[in-house]
Queue: 2 jobs
Job 1
Amino acid sequence: MISQHTVLGAATILYVLLFFLHALYFALRKDRVMAAMWYVLYAAFAVHSAGIALRWAESYRLGIGHAPLSNYYESLIFFSWSISLLLVTMRKRLSYPVITFIATALSLFLIAYASLSPSVQKGIQPLIPALQSNWLHVHVITCFLAYAAFVISFVAGGLYFIRSKGIVPSGEILEEINYRSIIIGFFMLSSGILTGAVWAHYAWGSYWSWDPKETWSLITWIVYALFLHARFVRGWKGRRMAALSVIGFACVIMTYFGVNFFLSGLHSYAT
Amino acid sequence: MTATKSNNPGRGPLTGIGSALRSIFKFLVSVRLTITVLSLIAATSVLGSLIKQGGTEEEYLALYPEKTYHFIKLFGFDDAYHSTWFYFLMVLFAVNLASCTIRRIARRKKGSGDAGMPDIKGLVAAGSGFSAPSMHKEEITRRIAGRYRKKTILDGGTLYEKGSLSRHGATLIHASILVILVGGFIGLVAGFKGFMVMHVGETGEKALLRDGKNTHVPLGFKIKCKDFRISFYPGGEPKEYVSTVEILDASDRTVMERQIRVNEPLSYKGVRLYQASYGKTNRFEFLVNGKKVLLGEQEVYSEGKTPFMVARFAPEVHNFGPGVMIAYLEEGQKPKTAWLLANVEKMRSGRIPGAVISLERIEEEYYTGLEISRDPGVPAVLFGFALMLFGLYVNFFISHNRIYVVDNGDSLNVAGFASRNKEGFREELKAFKEGLT
Ligand code: HEM
């Protein structure tokens, strides 16, 4: 039986390969390289999914079966997977080498950090009673899809400030990608916050307790709500919107990483 | 009211008040206020997440210099989310949102009714439509009607529509936020949150609030803990803990018996009981003049001539194993103490005036910690959640499409608009005339 760690290791190697394929493309500018890149990306996504599935199966063999969405290591792996999922499902819109480059590099960073950092607990841990709920799945999946969409928005927003002709797509395209990722992200983040609240209602007897992670997700939500209003009510465009998406992403980082490192609360089991 | 006429102060001051009111209203509906209030709410939340909340004075002084502590206290940052001005921000936000929503609905009403025919020829020329010979009219309208609703017959044409709900997406979202805020407010005013700790066999009827003032809230019924079980994973982490409880009515009749698990609360008469925590205490079995007596720590046994209690428990007394210090009170004297050791035969019993006490056994016993809350606002909040997701979905992912079909006698013009996914709309239009020759 191949272990989940081997399979996830293989996925990591495929992400490394993607990194070099992009580098090769930037050097040669041959479309064939990008075509090959997409095949490797599909392969990486498939292997990554298989790794998650194996870990799931293994938890059942250990007699503590649960979906691999319950600790920091598993959330990093899933975060990375979500980014790849968005790339694969939105291939038509995101088929720009710089965008796939940065996004897959972030996937690589997350999965490599998860498996290499000594401070990340890699074992399969049993679920404490509070986590034994189907709301866990909906909550985690929606939150990480939101984070992944905000990653794409951040990439588009950040690239807006680097107008190097040739590689970076036009400002219009970046704005379109940015906006589309934000509506997906906003929808998913709202779903994540609301399912989290419903779960908290069943598990702790209070749908909102101002725990730091909750609070930061609300702050993030407010920032993106301001983004949507700036665009629709005030008609903001261009650099200001790009800047807002970078600020929004800083809040996402704080919500996901910052809270675990600097603050403590109900969600601190996630470290 | 007969004085109405004489109360009329004339035009001048009235318009003054009127214009003041109008500018206040303008301020309340302004998006600028929205941005300000939302930013302030976000900023308060940032501070609240960085500064310790609800700590004691000592905890703050250990963390911050005294001046900073006074500053924190002065602005209520030690309980930011329940401070007066945070509530003020919330109310301002709700008023802003409500007035925005009302104004939007009013404007919609005024501007509703279909504006008549757009410039169909122009749309066709711009690629958002096509022309076809009239003989295909039946087939084309049949195809359109398969996916669209026939809306109205206008001067010179027919309007077909789909996804018109998406025009109301933003209104639904805004209304849902109001519903959630109202639900939160109801919970704040009419609800409570507390907890209760029970050993197996004990009965409780009041929840203790966490307000530091030792407030008890009656539940309106009694709850008896019949059993508490806990199981562990092989690694020692708790796997499951369950309390079996009975609800008793005023005349001590059992109304229901249920298990409460983590994630599976019990709800009775609007009060919800959650399995929140558990803990261990010691129970001490004594023989008092040959009679079996079970006592917890600090629990007084006062049936005999001399009342006594377990004042202290020590798991290890000078390498002699576990022991308890009992304290007893003779009339008119100061309390005296004596040590009894459970595992040392000679030191197991002692004599106090009027009784021989011996410590027979020390048992560890679990107690269950139940979180207790009443929140009549929850249904509104949950409804608001559903409404928000529905509104977001409708607003972002449904496209409002309109197709106009105009019969010019020998030819037919078909054209329209889509609020989202415009490429998809053009493809769809193309498909309506595909295969017709
Ligand atoms: C944090 C709370 C809020 C959220 C999440 C929110 C969300 C939204 C969303 C998703 C849209 C639709 C954007 C689109 O057209 O796709 C919107 C539009 C709008 N919002 Fe809000 N909103 C909030 C608060 C407010 C408040 C307090 C006001 C009052 C000033 C307001 C005024 C508007 C206006 C005027 C529009 C334009 C609607 C239109 O398309 O006609 N919003 N809002």
Job 2
Amino acid sequence: MSLGDSASALGKVEHTGSAKHGGGHWLNEKVLSAGLLLLGVWFIASLVMLPALNQRTVVQWLRDPTGAIPMALFVVASFRHALDGMKTVVDDYVVDEGNRFALNTFFFFIAVGGGALALFALARIAFGAQG
Amino acid sequence: MLVSILHRITGAGLSFLGLAMLTWWLLAAAGSAEDYTLFTDVVTQWFGRVVLIGLTWAFFQHLLSGIRHLVMDTGQGFELGVNKASAILTIIGSLLLTAALWAFLLGVVK
């Protein structure tokens, strides 16, 4: 099925609508999804390839930049993607505008707070506060 | 239809339970030996195993149906036969990947 003639489907909707940037927002979410796809595969593959999953091994892994940096990206991308996804679900199913705003705001705080907590834990490991 | 709903349900499950477990695991690893032992004690109990196996299934299901959505975003795969086959493949694929991962993790396959 072909959606485009001369311009792509995205190109046709970019800068349309009241906000003028909905198409870009859509593309950002897709790029983030694709990035998270790679990071998710990296995460599972890493767990499988680690010789053990005890604290010593995990800390050693996350102290190395090759573990810490992708893990930081995985944490940020996951929380952001979860926030995008939950906003889609809330916007689709919560009819009342006040409830929708309240729930989206609540999820925003949880995502930011949770992401910060996970990053703090990772930083603590990576910068070796624990021996 | 089913796969679309599964994408949302697994997404919500991963968002809350999945990210909570990931954060707890990182905090436990950053903490004392007792902190980490508490985490491993819980996830090796039967209910902990059920949660982790459920989360890995949700992860693979969401990942595969996510790939399917990304392909469909390019305008492909909307033909009835292809669409249905790809939906069924995500379900079979997620079950196989979950089984393979846990067979490996539980030391059935080394």
